Amino acid sequence: PAVRAAPAPGLEKEVEGTAPGEKGGKGRRPFGYLKDLSSMTQLWQLWDVGQPGKRALRELEEQGTKWRRKWRQSWAPWSQAIRAIEAKATACCLAPAVAAERLEQQRLKKGMGVATFCTKLWEDLQSKHQLQQQQKKRQQQQGQQQQGQRMHKW
Asked: What confidence tens digit (pLDDT) does each residue in 87-112 have?
């Protein structure tokens, strides 16, 4: 069984609302603004556990995307930050909560806000992915050229 952290404290004012269809959830925003978070660990807790009295954002997302359709643009930075934590966890063979703590340490060293750090982190991950794709494409092209040269020798 997965170990889940305690609910994220301190966001009662910033993260008001529930998902549409939940009690009192008349379309109010079920997540706050990334700029209102104080740490990467707080972001991960909201995703993984939720805040007191609110469902985890992961649970909402597992049910589909309908719950966030009207917040598509404001959800994107959250989604990117969560994917960055998961990517760090996978790359370093860490639990996501530990990866979030390590990213928080990096963020503090750089003196960046959570939103700015998440944007930069995601851009870096995208650049790395693009470089990997370009390298893979070059290797395929080189393999095809070598195969073509072998065939011309016959």
From this structure: 889 999 999 999 999 999 999 999 99
